[in-house]
């Protein structure tokens, strides 16, 4: 009987060791995907409670639990729209969401709107290679989760068809239910009156149909859009 107990104990130890090794391997894989996504190092480890402290309004708990407790449901949403707060708070929130979704065995990509618009408008370099705008658009269409941060009107220069390329990217992602996180530098309309309406994008020829729709997300009852408003000094 003593030998049987020893064998059982060894078997349990081996199971636990194997389980721990799998966890370590998975964690390393998540961190590798996160770093390859372009998330800045300082925003790689924002936990659930820290994220909750960033969110404005009475639905902060509900929003936080939805993202951290049911990420597979989040991945069924086409667009996550972030506004409010300041640039640091928005970036923290967006990167936290991107990291949480990457942990679901997904590949993600973080792109600053100003940088992306510049590449689409200048037709020069992208990721240290010479790419055309079509190549850039194609590279962003298929990634599992895309985060475009700090969008604002002056990133879209007239007569460069930037909005059309954004439409090409976002339309494909919408059709294939690939989650796109978009944060806006300026507060968006909240659904009543004309408050912050000057910050919404209305010229679809310049900004594209999708960016205009996303900048009006707070006024729409569309299940494709999940809205996250960030508070200042969260």
Summarize the helices and strands and which ones pair or pack.
Elements: H1 2-37, H2 48-52, H3 60-69, H4 71-74, E1 79-84, H5 87-102, E2 108-112, H6 113-122, E3 125-126, E4 129-130, H7 133-141, E5 145-151, H8 162-175, E6 180-184, H9 204-207, H10 209-215, E7 225-230
Parallel strand pairs: 1-6, 1-7, 2-5, 5-6
Antiparallel strand pairs: 3-4
3D structure, described in words:
Helix 7 (133-141) runs parallel beside helix 8 (162-175). The relative contact order is 0.16. The chain is built from ten helices and seven strands. It is of the alpha/beta class. The strands form two sheets. It has a five-stranded parallel beta sheet with strand order 2-5-6-1-7, with helices on both faces. A two-stranded antiparallel sheet has the order 3-4. The chain has one domain (38-230): 3-Layer(aba) Sandwich (Rossmann fold).
Write a concise keyword list for the protein shown above.
234 residues, alpha/beta, Rossmann fold, five-stranded parallel sheet, two-stranded antiparallel ribbon, 7 strands, disordered N terminus
